[in-house]
Task: inverse folding
């Protein structure tokens, strides 16, 4: 495995570990074992766990933004866009995975400030995108927000993040589906 492949494999495995266990619950030894390299080699690619965490969050945010751009291009309208957005949070649940940034946010007091800043950026990106979508839907008459689009964006984001944890606690993906459907319905009623 060359340097780029090893770095990518480390990021992939670290992402899975954070999404299933949490940021504080994995070590470089876990990564070394998963990738088949020595622990010292992990430090060669990411000198500190903070450096790794910053890159994980940045990569996750970049990939999420690309998915949001895809929704913008492919959605048949605001309701379809909201449903596709909910799917982004649902993905991984059947494998026990939660949103990387949601998991890190749950332990925000224990993560380095640079990682926390990246998580805050992820949520800002999502709130901004949702606010714009809800504004557009309201102007077209498809969505009927009872509060400001920004308020609904924050509420929907928090609801979907929370729905992940409810579904994981019950080991029931349909719990997520019910919560997400209800949350979206509040904007279409």
Result:
């Amino acid at each position: 495995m060359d340097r780029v492949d090893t770095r990518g494999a480390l990021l992939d495995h670290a992402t899975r570990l954070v999404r299933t266990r949490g940021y504080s619950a994995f070590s470089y030894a876990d990564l070394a074992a998963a990738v088949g390299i020595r622990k010292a080699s992990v430090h060669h690619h990411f000198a500190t766990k903070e450096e790794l965490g910053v890159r994980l969050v940045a990569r996750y945010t970049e990939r999420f933004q690309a998915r949001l751009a895809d929704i913008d291009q492919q959605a048949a309208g605001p309701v379809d866009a909201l449903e596709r957005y909910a799917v982004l949070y649902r993905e991984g649940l059947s494998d026990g995975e939660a949103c990387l940034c949601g998991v890190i946010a749950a332990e925000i007091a224990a993560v380095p400030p640079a990682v926390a800043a990246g998580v805050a950026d992820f949520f800002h990106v999502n709130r901004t995108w949702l606010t714009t979508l809800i504004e557009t839907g309201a102007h077209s008459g498809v969505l009927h927000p009872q509060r400001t689009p920004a308020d609904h964006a924050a509420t929907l984001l928090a609801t979907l993040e929370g729905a992940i944890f409810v579904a994981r606690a019950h080991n029931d993906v349909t719990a997520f589906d019910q919560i997400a459907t209800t949350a979206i319905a509040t904007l279409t009623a």
Notes: The chain has a mean pLDDT of 95. The two ends are 53 Å apart (CA to CA).
